[in-house]
Amino acid sequence: MNSEPLILVVNDDGITAKGIRSLVEVAKKFGQVVVVAPDKAQSGMGHAVTINGIIRAQEQNIFGEGVQAYSCSGTPADCVKFGISQIIKKKPDLILSGVNHGNNSATNVLYSGTMSAALEGAMEGITSIGFSLLDYAADADFSASMHYAEIIVRNVLNDDKLPENFCLNVNIPKGSIEEIKGIRFGRQAEAFWDDWFEHRKDPGGKDYYWLTGTFHNHDKGEDTDEYALANMYVSAVPVQYDLTAYHTLKHLQQWPQ
Amino acid sequence: MNSEPLILVVNDDGITAKGIRSLVEVAKKFGQVVVVAPDKAQSGMGHAVTINGIIRAQEQNIFGEGVQAYSCSGTPADCVKFGISQIIKKKPDLILSGVNHGNNSATNVLYSGTMSAALEGAMEGITSIGFSLLDYAADADFSASMHYAEIIVRNVLNDDKLPENFCLNVNIPKGSIEEIKGIRFGRQAEAFWDDWFEHRKDPGGKDYYWLTGTFHNHDKGEDTDEYALANMYVSAVPVQYDLTAYHTLKHLQQWPQ
Fold it and tell me: Is A157 exposed, middle or buried (CB count within 10 Å of its CB: 0-12, 13-18, 19+)?
């Protein structure tokens, strides 16, 4: 790592969200910061990329002097691709995504624009960290998030044994620095959304639906992100983009063809 | 498995695509078929879900008698959630996604609406299979895809040892049944997009960009999906939604806090 790392900051709540401003403040302590973030909220976008439409981008002066920033019409994953290919024009040393307004633990990692941006970075061979605070409020208190983001970024930058496609999913419980007990490294819990749709009629009498649901943790393990968060620890789960279910491969190879 | 399995068919190319018609034909041989598919092309949508907007759905008579079908304004993952929660109102025995017009091998699995719909099914505890043909043409020849989809669906329905969250990513090379050599089960290759953006000016002189790129296989393994496809085999990769990078956990637990 060179002495002044180049850090790309992205998010999914949009470039004007409080969470990304907090993360930029942390990033500035460690190196040169470039921001490429969506021009509107892109929550729940998963790993969507814009392949059937165009991308626009606009330079923005939001984060003060020394921070080059662009709003981008694309998804969070698009922002990473666009930032590297069109703005920075080389690989940054680190990608920080977030701080997301809301939970990205357990299977939420798959729906999360924040974490998909981080995984996109990892796929491009760049160490990437996604941060999420368990508070959906626009004016959420990011003090503890900033405190722990600083600890985690310092550890990542000082660790020369990390694989180059290292990606970390960090979730911070809602609470003060004093209330949070530390960081626990663990695995993604077997916890899922139980979905339902709220059925409404529009003013013309036509049906429409809102996706909603409740989140259930079916996992009794004490080594999970859900357990850490429920016990007021910051949860950190290393994540990977290899989805192969290796444990079933041998069984499948016995199928008749 | 009961004698007449209930099969939910989804896709990401939209309900009028040729690929989904081919898959419905295969599904009809095995059980009762319900289709819930996007009302427009949703390629590259990854695991996006509609949380900041509404969903609409419309019954459609596209697949002939006996096949209940709905077009849905949502993403492929939305279609699975909506189909189970609002249309079928119970868990189907099987979800089939596709046949996609285009490749979903290697890291494409993360961008793929087809595979995200299948993974969504697996997260809901339903055996799910995504099928993709390596041909982007709207009028692609799906004969070989149908042949192999039938073999794979039969194996899945006859296999009582599969985990209930089993998910399979099937890619079919472009070619005739005679040209394709069989099915190879393997892992997701370390193969990635090298992105770039084509910069254009709109009629008003404003900048816009198209995401494009080339796909590179950096993986020398002969046990990968890329190797299978390059050698004219159907590739089948079992996939999972647990993204935890277990191999780095122990190392991270040594970080100072």
Answer: middle
Q: Which residues of B touch A187 (CB under 8 A)?
A: 242, 244, 246, 249
Would an 8 Å CB–CB cutoff place B161 in contact with chain A?
yes
**Tokens of residue A214, six digits:** 């409740």
User: pLDDT per residue over A216-232, tens digit each?
Assistant: 999 999 999 999 999 99
DSSP-derived 3-state class of residue B39: coil
- pLDDT tens column, A50-86: 998 999 999 999 999 899 999 999 999 999 999 999 9
Give contacts of A 27-86 with B, CB under 8 A. 41, 43-52, 54-57, 74-75, 77-78, 81-82, 84-86
Specify the 3-state DSSP secondary structure of A208.
strand
Q: Please name the amino acid found at residue B158.
A: N
Q: Kindly determine whether residue B123 and residue A192, on different chains, have CB atoms separated by under 8 Å.
A: yes
Lowest mean pLDDT among A104-108, B7-11, B51-55: B51-55
Q: What is the pLDDT of residues A137-169, one digit of tens each?
A: 999 999 999 999 999 999 999 999 999 999 999
Chain B residues within 8 A of A197 when measuring between CB atoms: 55, 81-82, 85-86
* Cα(A172)–Cα(A4) distance, integer angstroms: 27
The partner residues of A33 in beta bridges, in order of sequence, read: A7
B41 HSE (CA, 13 A, CB side) = 14
Q: Which residue of A has its CA nearest to B82?
A: A197
Contact yes or no for B87/B34 (Cβ under 8 A): yes
Output the CA torsion sign for A53, B60, B165, A254: negative
Q: CB neighbours of B87 closer than 8 A, spacing ≥ 6?
A: B34, B36, B57, B68, B70
- What is this structure's pTM? 0.96
Contact state of A249 with B197 under an 8 Å Cβ cutoff: no
Cβ neighbours for A106, distance < 8 A, ≥ 6 positions apart:
A188, A189, A190, A191, A192, A215, A217, A219, A224, A225, A226
Closest residue of chain A to B150, computed from CA coordinates: A257
Q: Which domains does chain A carry? A: 6-188+222-252 (3.40.1210.10)
Contact A56 B183 (CB under 8 A): no
